[in-house]
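Box S1 | Example of a co-folding query
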Amino acid sequence: MGEALNVEKIFGEKVFTVAKMKERLTKKVFQEVMRVMDQGGELSMTTADVVAKAMKDWAVENGATHYTHWFQPLTGITAEKHDSFISHPDGDGKMLMEFSGKELIKGEPDASSFPSGGLRATFEARGYTAWDITSPAFLKESGCGTILCIPTAFCSYTGEALDKKTPLLRSMEALSQQALRIVKLFGNDKATKVTASVGPEQEYFLVDKDLYMQRKDLMFAGRTLFGAPAPKGQEMEDHYFGVIKERVGAYMKDLNEELWKLGVTAKTQHNEVAPAQHELAPIYETANIAVDHNQLVMEAMKKVAYKHDLRCLLHEKPYAGVNGSGKHNNWSITTDDGVNLLDPGDTPNKNIQFLLVLACIMKAVDIHADLLRQSAADVGNDHRLGANEAPPAIISIFLGDQLEDVVRQLVETGDAKRVLEGGKLETGVSTLPDFEKDATDRNRTSPFAFTGNKFEFRMVGSADSIASPNTTLNAIVAEAFCEAADILEKAQDFDLAVHDLIKEYMTKHQRIVFNGDGYSEEWVAEAKRRGLPNIKSMIEAASTITTDKAVALFEKFGIFTRVELESREEIIYETYAKTINIEALTMIDMASKDILPAVAAYTGELANTVIAVKEAGAGAVAQMEVLSEVDTLLTEAKQALSKLIAEEGKAAAITDVKKQAFYYKESVKTAMEALRAPVDKLEMLVDSNIWPIPTYGELMFEV
Ligand code: ADP
Ligand code: MG
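Box S1 (continued) | Returned holo structure for magnesium ion
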C-alpha cells in the first residue's frame, strides 16, 4: 500500500484562501477585503499594500520567486508574464523581495500581440490587467519554479474588454441585479445578491507520447487529419464507465492531487464513450471561479499527461468516426440567502416564483437562441454539433415530462392543477430497495436540458473557455428578468399580473421546448417549421453577436459595447482562418513529405514483386491488382494535394477576414477532405510496416 494521501490537508494548499487571509491580515484589513469581495468597490491603496505584502510573504514561504497577472485573452487560453519579487538593491547591494499594492491591483502587459479585432487599430496598444478580487490567487509550479498567479481582467487603455473575464463579471452583476428585483417581488427582502453557479464536466482524450510525437497533425492541429478507422471503435460500448486502465488511473490520481492542491473540487472521473476518452467533473461553484478553475483543469490535464508519458487531447474531434469531446455546462442561480431559483420543489405547479423564472428562461433562450449557439462555437466544435453524437446545432429546451406537463396546462387553461409524480421504481429483487423515482427521465440529446435544479448546456466545446456560454446565459436571462420586473413592479394586482405574464411568456415561447430525440432528422425538419435557427458553423454564427438585438442586449447591461462586439466578431473570423490554415499546411506537409513518398516507394516494391513473380513463371494477378489500385489512389491523392496547395494559397491571399474565413470553410476544408479520402483508403491497402504514421488502432488502444 502506498502512503495515504491526506486530501483534507492538501486541498487548497497552493491557494491564498480566505482562511489564509484571515490568518495573516489584521481584522480591519480583512474586513475591508471581504466587503469588496462581496459588494464590489475598490480597496484603498493602504489596504492593497497590506494584502500584497501578506500574499507575497505567503507565496515566498512556499517557494515563489515571481508573480504574474493571470488573465484570459481572446485566444481562449490563459496568459501570464512573470515578474520576480526582486527589487532594486540598496547601497550595500542587499536586495529585499517586494510586492506592492499597486502591483497587486494593476498590471500593464503590452496588449498589441493579443487578438483584439478592430480595437488595436483604433486604440493604443496599451493593455491593463486588474485583480479580480473574487477569484483567489494561487501558486503555479512549473519548470520556471513557483509563480504567484493573480487572476485578473484584461482591458485596453480606453476600457474595452480584451478578455473573457471582464464581460463575464459584468454579466454576473447584471444577472444579480435583475434577479434581485424578481425575488423582491415575491417578498424576499433579505437577499442582497444572486449568484450564477457553474459546474462544467470536462471530456478529454489521452494518447501515448511516443505515438503522438510521430503525428504532426496531433502536434500542430490537436486532431488527426488523416486516419482510417480502426477495426474496433466504440461499437461494443465497452469503454463508457468501463474499468479504468492502470496507466490512466495513475494519471487521474496525479491529476486529482494537482487540482485539489489548487483548490479545484475535482469530484467525478470516468471513462467516456470513445476508446481513450475520459471525463472529469468538479463540484459546482460561482461562475467566474468555475471559469478560472476550468482553465486550470485543462492546463493540469495537459501538464500531468507529460509526467506519465502521455499527451492530453482537448480538441473536440481528435478522431473521425468515434465520439468527440465536449463540456456540459451546468448552470443555476442562487440568492445569498440560499434559494436556488431553479429549484421547482415537489409541486412546481404551485411554485409561482419558479414558474416565472422558468417562463423568463424560455423567453430568453427562444429570443436569443442564435447567441447561445454562438457562445458554444469554436473551430473544433464544428465537427461535433449536429453530427449525431452531440446536440444538434439547433437550440431547444428539454423540460422533462413533469415540467412540460405543467407548461402545457398553463398554456392551455392558464392554471396548472396537476403535477406528475415520480412514483416508485420497483427493482424486482427482494434484497434491493425500491427507489423513489424522479418525475422526469434524462434526455441526452438536448442542447439545453433542465436537470432537476439546474440547466445543463451541453453544446460547449471541450477545448473552449466556458466564459462565453456563461456570459451569454447570464445576459439573456438578466434581460428577461428585467423586462418581467418592469411590468410586475408596476402591476396593481401582482398575483393576477404574474399569472398572466407566465401564461403569456410560456405561450409565446413554447416552440423552444422539445422533449424528443434531438439527433433525429425529423427534429431538424420540425425545428425549421417552428422557425428555430439552425446555424451550422462557427463562422455562420459569428454575426449573431452584432445584430441590433444582440447589441441592444449587451449594451443595456453594460456587458459589451458595439465596438467590443464588432471586434469579437472579427476575432472569430481570424481564429477560424488561422486554424484551418494550420490544418491545411499540416496536411500538405504530411502528405508531401511522409505519406505520398511512402506510398510511392511501396508501388516500386510491388512493381518489383510483380516482375520477379512473372519471371518465376507465375501470373502475379493479385499483385498487379493491388499495384493498380494503389497507383490509382496515389494519383488521386497527388491531384488532391495539388488542389489543396492551390486553394490554401488563394485563401491566404484574401485580405478581408470574413471573406477569408468563408473561403477557408468552403474551399480549403473541401480540398482537405478530398485529400483525406484517398489517403485513408491507401492506409487500408499499404503494408503496415511501410505506413509512416501510427494508426487509429494504435493511437486509441495503446494507452
Ligand atoms: P450528471 O449526471 O449529468 O453527470 P451530476 O449531478 O454529476 O450530473 O453533476 C454534473 C455537474 O453539475 C457537476 O459539476 C455538479 O457539481 C454540477 N451541479 C450540480 N448541481 C448544480 C447546481 N445546482 N448548479 C450548477 N451546477 C450543478
Ligand atoms: Mg454528466
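The longest strand covers residues 194-208. The chain has a mean pLDDT of 93.
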